[in-house]
Design brief:
Layout: E1 27-35, E2 40-48, E3 53-61, H1 64-76, H2 79-89
Antiparallel strand pairs: 1-2, 2-3
Length: 96
């Protein structure tokens, strides 16, 4: 197989790639992570687009795992995020 020439490769017809339409934005999360080697901080903002609500989030940890857990706790304390997550996790309604 190493002695194959590029001309020996099978050529495929060129097909147009059409992107799938994106679903609407329901929430935005922006997080900045800072570290000095001894501790790591994450801070950011969360926005519920439909309700127009904004909240700040902050977390701190000594390891990436501790930071991830603290950040998840901080995010899930936000009341409107529970609604957004629930909508995303629940099965879609079936049409009859």
């Amino acid at each position: 197989m190493a002695d194959r020439k590029p001309d020996d490769l099978e050529k495929r017809p060129v097909e147009a790639v059409e992107p799938k339409p994106m679903p609407p934005v329901v929430a935005r999360l922006v997080v900045e992570i800072r570290s000095d080697g001894t501790r790591t901080l994450a801070r950011g903002a969360l926005e519920d687009v439909a309700a127009g609500e904004h909240v700040a989030i902050q977390a701190e940890g000594q390891s990436p795992l501790q930071l991830a857990i603290a950040l998840a706790r901080s995010i899930f304390k936000v009341p409107f995020l529970g609604r957004v997550v629930a909508r995303g996790l629940l099965p879609k309604k079936r049409e009859k």
